[in-house]
Design brief:
mainly alpha, 4 helices, 78% helix, 0% strand, flat
Amino acid sequence: MKSVHILGLLSCAIYLGCNIAYDWVDIPCEYNCPSAADSRLFFIPLSFMVFVLSLICRLSAKQNGFRALEILWEAFMWLSILQCVKFIGFNPFLQMLSDYAVLLIIAARVTYKIIKNARPSAGNS
């Protein structure tokens, strides 16, 4: 668990550094010109940081026996993984479509897992 916490601190530091770099590189202009900085410089480290922090929370919920919270943290963990993939490899139109598809799939998975865990098991009746 210690290595996951170190990874969490490292991901926060990377995000902070990239956030500062994005502000330095992105030079706003008065007219309708494109931004100088690529937004992936901001969003990929942000998604990685959210992934690691969600992983830490999921592991903590698992250790403490909070199954419903573990399921929800797993959903946020998958959202952040798919955000990284989206910003690395897709064009803007596919990004929009993938956002809706991913949200639908993850919402269905979370709902299924919550319903599955809410049912009493056959051996415990």
